Amino acid sequence: MARRLGDSVPFEDMRAYAHEALLEAVSTFDPSRATLATYVARKVRWAILDGIKRERRSRRALARATGLLGAERLSLELASAPDEPGFSEDDHVSALDRLLEAHAAALALGLVAASSSPEEHTSRAEMAHALRHAIGALPERERKLVERHYYQGEDFDEIAAELGISKSWASRLHAQAIQSLGEAIASRTR
Fold this sequence. Notes:
9 helices; sigma factor; transcription regulation; Arc Repressor Mutant, subunit A; single chain; mainly alpha; sigma factor activity
């Protein structure tokens, strides 16, 4: 995590977030849902990213944490979807392209918030405009979820409760929204 986030977050802070996650993992581990190593790794990564978001350190660290957390949620949701029977090699290549587009959109959502140089600011402003346009085209629930989570910093639990859906359904909506955003942005750059 330190390598992914750069030196914008002190290592000792990340260690403290990870320690809290380990203590929580001991009491919440369910062997029927995942292996201990997988569960602990996810808890630690998410705790570090959530801790950074809570502390609102620097705009750059917050942007990286938000983007990485979005990509992580997307990965977990997509990993639970089984391959379609009879997938050809072309189908797998196409699915990989859509996955990469979706990850790019998730990371872009987090990164548009931070800019440090005029060039970065201009590039991010263009990306922000493209994202805003694509977000506006999402179905209402997906749009609300994305706007409230990425732009207003609300937790998935809060948003799901107010939308009257479960957290797992909110994760599915998030994955659908991010995939749609990835496709929309990719089609604009072609």
